[in-house]
Automatic annotation (TrEMBL):
Native organism: Halobacillus alkaliphilus
Regions that span the bilayer: 21-46, 58-81
Keywords: Membrane, Transmembrane, Transmembrane helix
Name of the protein: TrbC/VIRB2 family protein
């Protein structure tokens, strides 16, 4: 009985890990789309923003780039944590 409980706990952890990986990959896909939209809005401000267009476009460019780097780096962080945790 103890073996069955231990085995089912490992299966639950494995399922939780695969669910987390699926959520992370979906978030990365949405992050790429969001970054493209942010870059497009930044380009719009840069082209049509007038005197303050450059200042407002920089915020969109930096925000989109930082968000994309953090989201893409999340996979590396998750894989590192997964390699360090031993059950």
């Amino acid at each position: 009985m103890k073996y069955f409980a231990h085995h089912s706990m490992l299966a639950a952890i494995s399922n939780l890990q695969s669910t987390g990986a699926s959520i992370l990959s979906a978030m990365q896909l949405l992050g790429i789309v969001s970054a493209a939209i942010a870059f497009g809005i930044g380009a719009y401000h840069l082209i049509w923003g007038g005197v303050r267009g450059r200042q407002s476009s920089i915020v969109w460019f930096i925000g989109g780039a930082v968000g994309l780097v953090v989201l893409m780096g999340a996979t590396a962080i998750a894989e590192y944590i997964d390699s360090q945790v031993i059950f």
